[in-house]
Input
Amino acid sequence: MSDPRQPAECIFCRIARGEVPARKVYEDEDVFAFHDVRPQAPVHFLVVPREHVPTLYEAGMAQHRALGKMLALAGELARKEGASEGFRIIINTGRVGHQEVYHVHMHVLGGPEPLGPMLLRRKSEDRK
Ligand code: AMP
Output
């Protein structure tokens, strides 16, 4: 049975191998970046390590080069994509983090206008 958590089926591994098209923003031997297919802001792209690591729970010092590069590239790529006055980075992790694609990735979001609050605040009655 197909398993989207395995590299053969993983959508981001398939993009890395050129099997699925994506609007690429950047690539090198460790990481690649492309526009999110469902943008949540005027600038919204993903920065992804080439190595298939499902979540940050499985990442460790063996991935420090790629993970460091993802952050180190963020400002330059955000500016290049038009987010020159600020941006936000999100790494959703696991069920609680609402991770959809189980291959570590960093969202870079920005736009001409300030982004909304970091997390949607629950209505006061939901908290009871
Ligand atoms: P998440 O795992 O929740 O951090 O988010 C996964 C993100 O991947 C979502 O924002 C999707 O819109 C995006 N996504 C899924 N498939 C593709 C694809 N083929 N090309 C570009 N973005 C994608």
In short: The chain has one domain: 11-113. The two ends are 42 Å apart (CA to CA). The helical segments are 11-16, 64-80. Residues 11, 20, 22, 34, 36-38, 92, 98-101 surround adenosine monophosphate (CB under 6 Å).
